[in-house]
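Obj: model holo form, ligand = flavin mononucleotide.
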Amino acid sequence: MGRGELERDELGRGELGRGELERGELERGELGRGAVERGGLERGAVGREELERGELEAAAEDYCALVETFGPLADYLTINVSSPNTLGLRRLQARDHLEGLLSEVTRARDLVTGPPRPLLVKLSPDLDPAELEDALAAVVRAGVEGVVATNTTTARPGVDSSLGAQPGGLSGAPLFPLALEQVRRAARWGGGRIAVIGCGGVSSRDQVQAMLDAGADLVQLFTALVYQGPRVVQSLLARSD
Ligand SMILES: Cc1cc2nc3c(=O)[nH]c(=O)nc-3n(C[C@H](O)[C@H](O)[C@H](O)COP(=O)(O)O)c2cc1C
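Output (holo structure tokens):
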């Protein structure tokens, strides 16, 4: 993080801790042709978090540039179309947008040399069942290997703190029931055609087991690492007998 970002108040807009590929990365990092050609850098657009008109349609170009750049370095790639912190991004989960996007991104992924890089699509816990099925249909149709369920939620389930009024995505304990339900639905709908990675509020062995019982093939942690530190992984994996 550079001095410039702090001066532009990036931290206040949720820049801390992002770990995956998403629309808007290019404007921040000079990584892609698309952003530069559209003049993003010259316009001082570093750190923009909102998709403007036409950008949704052009998103594939940036995702493909990121796949090209990071594909050779990664064991797998996750396409983030579900962060609530980039306004408009979640519209990419709609079947029409997602099918177009994934057909281009899978093509870019197939061009990465070396071992196969599984592609995952990260979905929102806030999709209703019909929206989830639409997104899953696009995923299966594109031949994508799996989904991560889920990203953060804009809901505030069981949160009775004044902090709940803050905008943005909520992670951690309150998210767990929503994420678990999306995992269950995705696994049932997928019927083994796609891998389902369970993610959202997992911080105990019982929760890991619940994710697996709901049909998750793998389980991811994020917030638990913040509160319990990296050793949480070992303790969640430890056998009880
Ligand atoms: C501070 C913060 C930043 C995050 N940044 C991203 C991101 O850039 N891309 C993404 O796909 N998910 C992002 N997430 C979502 C997490 O990867 C994860 O899906 C979510 O927090 C639910 O898991 P958890 O409850 O274990 O944290 C972020 C979450 C937090 C709390």
